[in-house]
Design a protein that fits this description.
By secondary structure, this protein is of the alpha/beta class. The chain has one domain: TIM Barrel (Alpha-Beta Barrel). It contains ten helices and ten strands. The strands form two sheets. It has an eight-stranded parallel barrel, surrounded by five helices. The chain has a two-stranded antiparallel sheet with strand order 1-2. Helix 4 packs parallel to helix 5 and helix 5 runs parallel beside helix 6. The radius of gyration is 19 Å and the shape is globular.
Length: about 300
């Protein structure tokens, strides 16, 4: 029935598809959180970045933009959920939006069995300069105490990091400054929060992307790589193998193209430590994550 509604909505207005998927996921979560039918998320723990993830499948950023779904997401089966992306600009007043996200996260943490929470952070400034760095620093400070990990999202379409020839000096300075501010916040707050960088690959690469090299040089905690609209599955898998080689001990999270348990397992075998999905939930319904995780073999360490 769910897929029938999705196909119907695509013919009427494609913008309704996401809204329908979100509300259906929320209602399903509420129903499956009731005492008589309460459904626990599948546990296949994975240790990565010093944290134990309940399982290695996550919900990618973009679906739960303001953490309003977090309270009801556990029955969907995800081991971690990435909230956002929360786009910052110091010229824009957004304290009320941030307060709502924080309140939603605090409410979700009261639930037993909630997934780990990542927060994806973006900047509305287009150039990797002091203004962009200021946006990211402010975002990190606002959400530091509320996230299990933070993501600096550089995958924005048209963003400088997606250009064929990104400005290496500017990118290096940005990443080093983010790593330095991570240490400042850790000392100030007394807590360690991993900071990952999210990139998007638009085509196969046979040489290590500059961004991967600079992320390692900066000493950041991991990289999320998004594969968007790749038609060749073989090229995706080969690229993940290359990324696993290039990243070495740096944790690798892969998002894009996962619709079945077999897809996820292929990514893990190629070298991904964790994987995320988004489109599959919209297309197949709120329990696709649980179906995938249940079919995966256990893996103690990513």
């Amino acid at each position: 029935m769910y897929r029938h509604f999705i196909r119907l909505l695509r013919h009427i207005d494609n913008t309704l598809v996401y809204k329908f998927a979100y509300q259906w996921t929320r209602i399903s979560g509420i129903l499956h959180s009731l005492p008589l039918v309460k459904t626990a998320p599948p546990r296949k723990p994975v240790t990565l970045m010093g944290m134990e993830f309940p399982n290695p499948l996550g919900l990618a950023a973009g679906f739960d933009r303001d953490a309003g779904l977090l309270k009801w997401i556990a029955p969907a089966g995800f081991g971690f959920v990435e909230v956002g992306t929360v786009n910052f600009s110091r010229e824009k007043e957004q304290s009320a939006d941030n307060a709502r996200i924080i309140a939603n996260i605090e409410e979700a943490r009261k639930q037993n069995g909630h997934p780990l929470i990542g927060i994806s952070l973006g900047s509305l400034n287009e150039t990797p300069d002091a203004r962009m760095l200021g946006d990211y620093r402010e975002a990190m400070a606002v959400f530091w105490r509320y996230a299990d990990y933070l993501v600096i999202n550089l995958s924005r379409p048209g963003g400088f990091a997606r250009s064929p020839d990104p400005p290496d000096d500017d990118l290096r300075k940005l990443l080093l400054s983010i790593a330095q501010y991570r240490e400042e916040l850790a000392a100030r707050q007394g807590t360690q929060v991993p900071v990952l960088i999210k990139l998007a690959l638009d085509k196969p690469c046979n040489e290590q992307p500059l961004a991967i090299q600079l992320i390692k040089e900066a000493g950041l905690d991991g990289v999320i790589v998004a594969f968007e609209r790749w038609r060749s599955r073989e090229k995706v898998i080969n690229t993940i193998r290359n990324l696993d080689h290039w990243t070495g001990s740096l944790p690798l999270v892969v998002v894009g193209g996962i619709r079945t348990p077999e897809d996820a397992e292929e990514y893990f075998e190629a070298g991904a430590g964790l994987v995320q999905l988004y489109t599959a939930l919209v297309e197949q319904g709120p329990f696709v994550g649980k179906k995938i995780v249940t079919s995966l073999p256990s893996r103690k360490h990513a």
